[in-house]
């Protein structure tokens, strides 16, 4: 067989379109061009819309449009996972990442909404996984507002926990009050517990209810402390040390506090 049927790089011709597709997807998901930024912004908007639907799931699940919305979200998520898999340089290693495994589990709950209804509340964890991948903070970094990333992460962790706890409490204790009223009761109880207000008008019955209340209060207080520290601690700037890689330094730092390397941190002064 003549070698003229193969491209110069040695790859078979029937694989060339797939290789081009992978390169194009990699540039869209991880590139820094104007087109890539627009695509990443659109993808992030879709992700946030999906999370909003996850939060509204208890209200939607008894409506005629529930399955249509559920399967539509599943199709979008499956398309996103497939595209990111093609864009990955090492697909098998990418599939083993915890955030990817979480997305795959969420996809299964979307494909089996009634069979896995007890695990539906775990979908809100995708908000946390977006934070871990860094996609959520790219707009801040591009606008030169990286110093707000730490407080924003603390707020997001608190919001994720609030809705995660609300979903678990609703599924476990308030399902008999289906719909918006039961979900609001669960949210009200979660916020009252996290803030240690404890009005007492809504309580969880039984030993499991008491244990759930204890866990919610302990984790909630910890997240509030983390949020307060992120807001009120001395401001740091993001500047990567070329020697040890430490990224957060005092605005007027001359040496890296980890390795002592001389820093050249830019400022806004003329």
From TrEMBL:
Keyword Transmembrane helix attributed: yes
One GO cellular component term of this record is: voltage-gated potassium channel complex
What membrane topology does the annotation report for this chain?
Multi-pass membrane protein
Gene3D superfamilies documented for this protein: 1.10.287.70
Highest taxon of source: Bacteria
Q: Which SUPFAM superfamilies match?
A: Voltage-gated potassium channels
Segments spanning the bilayer are 42-60, 66-87, 99-125, 154-174, 186-205, 211-232
The chain positions of domain Potassium channel read 159-231
Its localization reads: Membrane
Keywords from the named record: Ion channel, Ion transport, Membrane, Transmembrane, Transmembrane helix, Transport
Q: Which PANTHER family match?
A: POTASSIUM VOLTAGE-GATED CHANNEL PROTEIN SHAB, VOLTAGE-GATED POTASSIUM CHANNEL
- What is the protein name given in its UniProt record? Potassium channel family protein
Organism name: Jiella flava
């Amino acid at each position: 067989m003549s070698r003229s049927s193969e491209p110069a790089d040695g790859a078979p011709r029937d694989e060339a379109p797939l290789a081009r597709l992978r390169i194009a997807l990699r540039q869209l998901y991880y590139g820094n061009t104007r087109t890539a930024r627009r695509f990443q912004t659109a993808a992030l908007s879709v992700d946030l819309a999906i999370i909003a639907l996850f939060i509204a799931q208890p209200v939607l699940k008894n409506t005629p449009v529930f399955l249509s919305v559920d399967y539509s979200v599943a199709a979008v998520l499956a398309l996103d996972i497939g595209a990111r898999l093609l864009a990955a340089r090492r697909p098998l290693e990418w599939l083993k990442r915890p955030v990817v495994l979480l997305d795959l589990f969420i996809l299964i709950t979307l494909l089996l909404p009634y069979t896995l209804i007890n695990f539906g509340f775990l979908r809100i964890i995708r908000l946390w996984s977006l934070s871990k991948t860094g996609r959520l903070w790219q707009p801040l970094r591009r606008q030169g507002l990286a110093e707000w990333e730490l407080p924003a992460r603390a707020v997001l962790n608190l919001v994720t926990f609030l809705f995660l706890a609300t979903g678990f409490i609703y599924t476990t204790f308030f399902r008999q009050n289906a719909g918006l009223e039961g979900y609001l009761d669960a949210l009200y109880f979660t916020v009252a517990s996290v803030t240690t207000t404890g009005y007492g008008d809504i309580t969880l019955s039984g030993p499991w209810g008491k244990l759930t209340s204890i866990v919610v209060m302990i984790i909630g207080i910890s997240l509030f402390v983390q949020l307060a520290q992120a807001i009120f601690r001395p401001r740091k700037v993001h500047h990567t040390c070329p020697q040890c890689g430490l990224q957060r330094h005092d605005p007027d730092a001359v040496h890296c506090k980890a390795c002592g390397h001389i820093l050249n941190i830019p400022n806004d002064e003329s």
